[in-house]
Design goal:
The protein is α/β, with parallel strands linked by helices and about 325 residues long. The protein is built from 14 helices and five strands. The structure holds zinc ion (ZN).
Length: about 325
C-alpha cells in the first residue's frame, strides 16, 4: 500500500504509460518514507501479467505477488543485508560488494526472456563499496535492453555524483500528517494513539505502520524522544554522556538517538525566535551532520562519535 506521494506516483505512472521509463532512477528520502514500496510498485507495473498499465500492476497475479515478496527472478534485490553472492569471508557484511554488481551484470547480460523487463532494486545505495559503485557506474553507461535500475538511498550525499547524474533523481518528501492520520483512522487506531503515532512518524508512513505492528516500538520511541528532549534542555554534559553510555554497543539504538537529536535540533531551529539561539542551532546541526557522515562512512567508534554529538548538542 502506498501512503501519500500522489504526485510522484502520478509522474511514474505517466512515464510507464508512455513507455518512457529511464534506465535508472535514484529514489532519495528518509528511511521508511515509502521509497522501496514505490520501487516495488514500479517493478510490478513492468512485470504484471494482467494489467501492466496500472502503476503497481494488478497486485494479485503471480508476478505481482513475487515482486512484492521480493522473490521475482527478474527483480534483483540488493542491500547490505541481502547479497546476491554470499560473502567470501565469514565476517558480517557491511557493504554492497563488487561481487554483487558482477552478478547483476552477468544476469543482465542474457537477452530478456520474451521481452520481459529486468530490474535491479538496490537499496542503501550509499553503502556500495568504492569498487561496487564504479561497477554500477559502468552498468549505467551501458544498461542493456529492457533493464531498469532502481537505486534507493536515505543518504544521497554519500552516493557518487557520477551515479546520481546518470539516474533520474526522485526526491521523496515527508508525507502530510493528515494523510498518515487518515490511514491510521482507516486501520481503526484509537484517537490518542493516532496523535502519538502521527507525531512520531515524522512524515514517514513506514514508521507509523511499524508502530501498529509493534506497540513496544511506539513506547520506545516515546521514551527516546522524551529522554533526548530532557537531555538537550538540561545542557548537562554528564547527562549527555550517560545517555550515550546507555545505548553503547547497540548500533540501531545509537542511530535512533542520533536521528532524534538531529530532529529535535531542527524542531528547535524552526520554533526559536531568538537570533543567538538560532545561530547556535545552525552551528550544532552542521557539526552533527558532519559527525553523522563520519559515523556512516568510516570505522569511527560509534560510542565516541555519539559522545561528541551529544556534548555538542547540549552545549550552550
Ligand atoms: Zn499483476
Amino acid at each position: 500500500m502506498i501512503i501519500g506521494h500522489e504526485r510522484k506516483v502520478r509522474y511514474l505512472e505517466r512515464v510507464l504509460k508512455n513507455g518512457r521509463a529511464a534506465h535508472a532512477y535514484l529514489f532519495t528520502g528518509p528511511d521508511s518514507i515509502g521509497k522501496r514500496t514505490i520501487a516495488r510498485h514500479f517493478a510490478r507495473a513492468l512485470l504484471c501479467t494482467t494489467s501492466p498499465v496500472e502503476f503497481g500492476g494488478c497486485g494479485a497475479c503471480v508476478a505481482c505477488r513475487a515482486v512484492e515478496a521480493e522473490t521475482h527472478p527478474s527483480v534483483l534485490v540488493l542491500d547490505v543485508a541481502h547479497a546476491l553472492v554470499p560473502p567470501r569471508k565469514e565476517e558480517s557484511r557491511t557493504k554492497i560488494s563488487l561481487d554483487d554488481i558482477h552478478e547483476v551484470r552477468r544476469r543482465f547480460s542474457f537477452a530478456p526472456r520474451a521481452g520481459e523487463w529486468r530490474i535491479a532494486l538496490i537499496d542503501e545505495a550509499e553503502m556500495m563499496s568504492g569498487e561496487a559503485a564504479n561497477g554500477i557506474l559502468k552498468l549505467l553507461e551501458e544498461p542493456g535492453e529492457r533493464v531498469v535500475f532502481l537505486l534507493i538511498t536515505a543518504h544521497p550525499e554519500l552516493v557518487l555524483p557520477t551515479i546520481a547524474s546518470r539516474a533520474e533523481v526522485v526526491r521523496f518528501l515527508p508525507v502530510a500528517d493528515r494523510v498518515i492520520r487518515a490511514c491510521l483512522v482507516e486501520k481503526g487506531i484509537s484517537n490518542a494513539d493516532q496523535e502519538t503515532m502521527t507525531l512520531l512518524s515524522d512524515g514517514c508512513p513506514g514508521r507509523a505502520l511499524a508502530f501498529i505492528q509493534d506497540r513496544q516500538k511506539l513506547a520506545d520511541a516515546v521514551a527516546r524522544r522524551e529522554r533526548v528532549r530532557a537531555v538537550l534542555s538540561g545542557h548537562d554534559g554528564v547527562e549527555a554522556l550517560a545517555l550515550s553510555l546507555g545505548v553503547a554497543g547497540d548500533g540501531t539504538e545509537e542511530w535512533a538517538i542520533l536521528d532524534e537529536v538531529w530532529r529535535e535540533l531542527h524542531v528547535r531551529l524552526k520554533t526559536t525566535g531568538n537570533n543567538t539561539e538560532y545561530k547556535s542551532l545552525v552551528r550544532k546541526i552542521k557539526k552533527v551532520d558532519i559527525l553523522a557522515t563520519t559515523l556512516a562512512t568510516t570505522n569511527a567508534n560509534p560510542r565516541l562519535v555519539l559522545d561528541v554529538i551529544l556534548l555538542e548538542a547540549v552545549g550552550r
